Amino acid sequence: MKVLGAGIFLAEELAGFQAPPAWRKATRNMVTATASIERALAQAGVNVAGDHEIGFVLGSTAGELETSADFIGTWSKSRLARPLLFQNSLHNATTGFASIHFQLTGPSFSMSALEATPEECLGMAKMLIAEKSCKACIVTLVEGHKTLAKLMGELSVSEGACTLVVSSEDACRENGWAPRAEIADLKALNYPRADVHAPLVAIQDSGFFARARDWGAGK
Amino acid sequence: METSGSTPRVWITGVGAVSCLGPNVETLWQNVLADRSGIRDGLGRVREEFLTPSSKNRALAFSVQAAREAMKQAGWTSLGPDDGLIVATTTGQILEWDYEFVDFISGRSTREKFREQFVNQPLGELTASIARELGHVGPTSLLTSACAASTQALALGAMWIRQGKVKRCLIAGAEVLCDLTVEGFRSLQLLSLEPATPFDQNRKGINLSEGAAFVALEATATAPLAEISGFGFSTDGYHMTGPHPEGDGSYRAMNAALKVAGLRPQQVTWAHAHGTGSQQNDLSEGLAMSRLFGGETPWVSSTKWLHGHALAASGALETVLVVQAMKAGRVLRTRGLKTPDPRIPVKHLTEDLNMTIDHVLKNTLGFGGANAAIVISRPGARA
């Protein structure tokens, strides 16, 4: 599988980040994921808006857990169910948000497979490209859990997002795309198995994050 | 029955379901034939007596029971390393932590207790638990694309078989009723207290439901129940919770599914719609179908009045129903439909219709703009 572009965005960058006004209702997952995709697409040089042949796969072990907890907490204390919190609490809410922002109209999938989430997401992209359901695929990994980490006293667990834009050799040739790297071993991009049995997963521990960071920096 | 050209075909050889209509597929089907809705007070809850108590985890209990039923029908006695397991869920693990969370933030429990429960929160834990219960060690995956998830899972299973990743694959959809979805959908003013009436001019909304549905897929089969002959996906890129008003994305997903199946729209016998009973879904989906079929649709119906909307499990549950209907040669009408919405230009049935069903287009739409469709074909209906 060929890599056309890569990008990361860590939660620490949020403090100085100028989000567009349309993002005012976005969760931290939505912002970090969308910002990491923006960086990866800029490097890949692929136009994605309205192209039905661009796929999108987003993986997360925790998903929008923080917003789910916010909804449940608000409901339990005040019997107030907030529609915005509900729509943002769904596991695939970030996929929906980013697809609206980038006008993605091809296949989109949300996945969660414990330590193998990176491998499964890239495997899905590979399947979609092989079936010609898409010619290139944005694959994003995102984790955000600051509030829950605080509740559990685990403040050091890293959060943020990383993205790879991938395609096949044939599609690169047909579309004139120049690959920057190649992924041979999907398993190497997973989280260490032991991490998954901690309450929260640190995104920086995944091989996916390390590759996206290095390739995004042109290494 | 094996391959078509060089691409392996994908056969359905077993189905299993635990739903508000019963603890197995036969009871589900008998309730369908008797026009019994499983909806009570607006929700489709699985009755406790339907379950064989084997686990504290509700989604896992549904899943193990439905998995065993599907495996038994397929004649599988165990799962090997070349067999796959793909699960679709959005709420599968939530009951494992939400009450403890509320107790903790209300000061009724301790951080340690919450932490202990919270380790179970990743949705991937449900797949791992099902795999452990079934003794499965092969490839697994989990999809969370809202209401399109188990249709996507069926398609992914088909891709795994077509591309040789596995020879057999169990596909699951599992959901539980919980405060998050019930109160969340209520806050969006989408819930109906009566059984849903899809495509009706006076439809009032959806009924959330729970349960699990399993479908066994194989590359080779001597007496298959049906075939997954096509699949297609798209994204609206339009709104977080509402579908594209003209059903543009849904149209593209269905069109892609027919293309993969190598079928012309006129060859479809029945379009089994997502048909949730919400104003927006039914209108958008109906317009997409009208466009796909050039104004002359096949029979279009939704079965949500019977079993409600099982969210991520809906595609798998409705595939189980389609397989039963195909076997019985009975196209199911939209129960609850009295006055068709004149803005939805599709062909409705007033009674169930006994006929040979060759190809069914099973369609789904999900929050986040995720659309997925599959084509389910009768064995022998394709060359």
Key terms for this structure?
heterodimer; A: 219 residues; Peroxisomal Thiolase, Chain A, domain 1; globular; B: 383 residues; alpha/beta; 10-stranded mixed sheet; two-stranded antiparallel ribbon; 11 helices
Can you walk me through this structure?
The complex is a heterodimer of chains A (219) and B (383). Chain A has 219 residues and is of the alpha/beta class. Chain A is built from eight helices and six strands. Chain A has helices spanning 28-44, 65-78, 83-89, 93-102, 117-130, 146-152, 169-175, 207-216, and strands spanning 2-10, 54-59, 108-111, 136-143, 160-167, 181-182. The two termini of chain A are 18 Å apart. The mean pLDDT of chain A is 94. Chain B contains eleven helices and 16 strands. Chain B is α/β, with parallel strands linked by helices and 383 residues long. Helices cover 32% and strands 20% of the residues of chain B. Chain B has helices at 25-33, 58-74, 98-105, 111-118, 124-134, 149-162, 179-187, 248-261, 279-292, 304-307, 314-328, and strands spanning 3-4, 7-8, 11-18, 43-44, 83-88, 140-143, 168-175, 208-209, 211-218, 226-235, 270-272, 299-301, 330-331, 353-354, 359-366, 370-377. Chain B has a single domain (3-377), classed as 3-Layer(aba) Sandwich (Peroxisomal Thiolase, Chain A, domain 1), CATH 3.40.47.10. In chain B, strand 15 and strand 16 form a beta hairpin. Chains A and B meet through helix 2, helix 3, helix 4, strand 3 and helix 5 of A and helix 3, helix 4, helix 5, strand 6 and helix 6 of B.
Please summarize what this structure is.
The complex is a heterodimer of chains A (219) and B (383). Chain A is α/β, with parallel strands linked by helices and 219 residues long. Chain A has helices at 28-44, 65-78, 83-89, 93-102, 117-130, 146-152, 169-175, 207-216; strands at 2-10, 54-59, 108-111, 136-143, 160-167, 181-182.
